Amino acid sequence: MLGQVRSLLRYRLLIQSLVSRELKARYRGSVLGFFWSFVNPLLLLVTYTIVFTRIMPGVHSPKMEPYYLFFFCGILPWTWFSSSLVESANGLIAGGNLIKKVLFPAEVLPVVTVLANLVHFLLGLPILLLFLAWEGRLGPAALLLPLPIAVQLLFSLGLALGLSALTVHFRDLQNILGHVLHLWFFTSPILYLYGEVPGTFRSLLRLNPMSHILVSYQQILFDGSFSHGPQLALAGLAALLALAVGAFFFDRLRDTFAEGV
Amino acid sequence: MTAPAVLARDVSKVYRRFVHQKQFRTLKSALLTGSLLSDLRPEETFTALDGVSFAVPQGATFGVIGENGSGKSTLLKLMAGITRPTRGTLSVEGRVSALIELGAGFHPEISGRENVAINGIMLGLTRKQVEERFDDIVDFAELREFIDAPVKTYSSGMYARLGFAVAIHVEPDVLLIDEVLAVGDEAFTRKCLDKIAEFRRRGKTILIVTHSLGLVEKMCDDVLWLRHGRVADHGDPKRVVDAYLTYVAGGEERLMAAGQGQQGAVADAPPADTAPVEGSVHGYRPGRWGSREVEITRVRLVDSRGRERHVFVPGESLTLALSVRTSAPVEDFVFGLGLFGSDGVSIYGTNTDLEDWKPRRLEGEAEVSLVLEDLRLVEGTYLLDVAAHRKDGTPYDYHRGLYSFRVKSRIKDVGLYRPAHRWAFSGGIELLAPAPRPELDLQEDDA
């Protein structure tokens, strides 16, 4: 794994330019262009605000008011997470031409996917901060924001590496993944408060690293006070483990990519 | 002696071949049976390369030839580092640039300019180096006016040109080329060949995988012939190409199978893009027959400098040199030649009798040469009949279609015969004269 980290450092220029290519290519040809990075989370926000304040008002506890803002704190990082996984599951196959025809370090592809989505997340963040400031909730705790971002980055990278490698041989994963992520979304505290989940289910939620990452975002941004540090540290360890396992699978299967994709 | 640029020791590459059922095995079943990793261990395998060893000295131009599926491209991919050998070791010194598929890394949505930058970085340049070489790359690709358009709007020729331009400007120490020169028009192919020649002069190592045997003979210092993943022959281009052609034309085997069992050396065979010799519409089938009282033991095609060749350009001289032998003195003999197109259409035929040469005596060994002073043929592959027979036509030794040569020309004129000609214009007409370019110079190795 150390070797992989070193090789990633060696390829940082390549990664950098591929990330910027990814960002440029994504909205090329659309009228709003780069603004989609801001518009997308806004539209998502509008949809959920309508659902939870007009259609189903009162299903959430008063602690989560203003609800749209609470939801925004969770959905933004979740979008980064889920689109990273969906795209990287497809990544090696989509980049098959590179792997088969050019001497190309395959691990760069999932890394680029995760990083490009991180940039989208970071571009959406000012909108969130703006609304937080509007509601008078933006406090000094927001300075801790890099902590959950770092943990989530490691966790996403690990899963992306493992997923992209396995999908080359098990294309079924692409289909399964959507459903897994759907389930994962509802079993992560995005729509509801982590602290209000009933007993047994809560211990299940506790095993989910994303729970702690999301709770950290909510505390840092929404509550303005951060007490979830130890749990986030544990999630960080889990993220490192995921990275190690992902990198292991990736390395094991690396030689089969050129033939498998 | 410096270390070789490429050193292969007993290299084997085994591909797994999926059985239908396995290919569609699901993750679930793999997880349930716990065979996740063992599934990735193949049961059915296909050996693409088997114990291949060779060394390419630095600065050499090295050709790899062989039929489709003989392992050429696999070898190139191994050298490029895209896949690793299953067994054996393969080392390559210095920066490698592989022209396997031109523009493989291009993203269709973004501009040529951005793609050049990213492709250059992908091939190992720094951002600064890309900037420095950017103008050269664009000029070489002749795409200046389109460089800011997304590459999805490019034609396939433009795409390939840009890909070639980037790859060649990476300044590799070792350049790997896989049959990519087939893209683009004649002018661009010519430009690519010039660039490759420049690489040679600057002492870079070049590996070419190609079906173009003329190119191999012309450019390579050393040729490796792969057959079914093994080294069939390795060494002097002329010799290896000849051996390969003999094999491809299947001359010996086919004749033996036909029960004639005689020696039939085949000098050249049509490359992949021309029609196969056998089974042609005119019923023209290669073969050899006759009493052998006079035997044609060897047939060579030589150029004006007496060197044996198989690719000629229009206007060159071609000498057909026959070595003949007779066990008992003969007084009735005629030597003849027939020239045919690759589809078996007769183009020209003559013999000593028709041209009124009176035979006196033939004894022991002799040489018969026919000099075609000025080869007025269009580009294509041509087959030769040579024969020794009596004046009444009874054959001593008739070789039908056993020899062939190729004519290579910059001008893609058509037909069977190229008369000496020139254009003349007068009055209210204006044309720009073609650039004075020499015909493909197949002798430039000597320069």
Description:
The complex is a heterodimer of chains A (261) and B (447). By secondary structure, chain A is mainly alpha-helical. Helix content of chain A is 77%, strand content 0%. Chain A has eleven helices and no strands. Chain A is globular and about 55 Å long. The two termini of chain A are 23 Å apart. With 447 residues, chain B is α/β, with parallel strands linked by helices. Chain B folds into two domains: 6-242, Rossmann fold (3-Layer(aba) Sandwich); 264-407, abc- transporter (atp binding component) like domain (Coagulation Factor XIII, Chain A, domain 1), CATH 2.70.50. Chain B has helices at residues 20-23, 27-32, 72-80, 112-122, 127-141, 156-168, 186-201, 213-219, 237-249, 251-257; strands at 6-16, 45-56, 61-66, 87-92, 96-99, 174-178, 205-209, 222-227, 230-235, 287-289, 294-302, 311-312, 318-330, 334-341, 346-351, 362-372, 380-389, 395-407. Chain B is globular and about 80 Å long. The two termini of chain B are 25 Å apart. Classes of the chains: A mainly alpha (261), B alpha/beta (447). At the A-B interface, helix 2, helix 5, helix 8 and helix 11 of A face helix 2 and helix 4 of B.
Q: Report the end-to-end length of chain A measured between terminal Cα atoms.
A: 23 Å
- pLDDT < 50 stretches of chain B: 19-24, 251-283, 440-447
Q: What would CATH call the architecture of the largest domain in chain B?
A: 3-Layer(aba) Sandwich
Largest sheet of chain B: 6 strands, mixed
The percent of residues in helical segments of chain B reads 10-25%
Biggest sheet of chain B, strands in spatial order?
5-6-7-3-8-9
Instruction: Give me the oligomer status.
Output: heterodimer
User: What composes the largest sheet of chain A?
Assistant: none
Briefly note the structural class of the backbone of chain A.
Answer: mainly alpha
- Quick one: how many beta strands of chain A? 0
> What is the count of helical runs of chain A?
11
CATH topology value of the largest domain in chain B: Rossmann fold
Measured as a percent range, the helix fraction of chain A is: over 70%
Order of helices and strands of chain A: HHHHHHHHHHH
* Arithmetic mean of pLDDT of chain A: 87
Shape of chain B: globular
Strand content of chain A: under 5%
Give the C-level CATH assignment of the largest domain in chain B. Answer: Alpha Beta
Annotation field: number of helices of chain B: 10
